[in-house]
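hey m, so remember when u said the C-alpha cells were messed up on ur end? i reran from scratch. heres the input so u can diff it against urs
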Amino acid sequence: MSSKKKTPLRKCVITQEMKPKKELIRVVRSPEGDVFIDPTSKKSGRGAYISNDREVIKQARDTNRLQKHLNAEVPEAIYDELIKIYERSLL
C-alpha cells in the first residue's frame, strides 16, 4: 500500500474556512508584542492564518479581526505586505 502524506489544514481567522496550510499566510505576535508575517510558519508566538486573497485581506483590515485575534495592534504596513504577497503569488 502507498501511503499519502496528509496535508495540514488550518483555519482562516477571517473566513473561518479550513484550507491547506500552504494556501494561507501566517501572521504572528511575538512574546514581546511585535506583529510580523511569518513565511516559514515556524516562528514562535501567537499565530493567525489568513487566506491569500485580496478581498479577505481587505476584510481583515476593515474589521480589525486580525488585531482582535492576536490581541495586539496590527500596523497598516502588515496589511500592505499581505497585499504584496498576494500580488506576487499571482505572477
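this time it looks ok to me. The CA atoms of residues 7 and 34 lie 29 Å apart. if urs says something different then somethings off w ur setup not the seq
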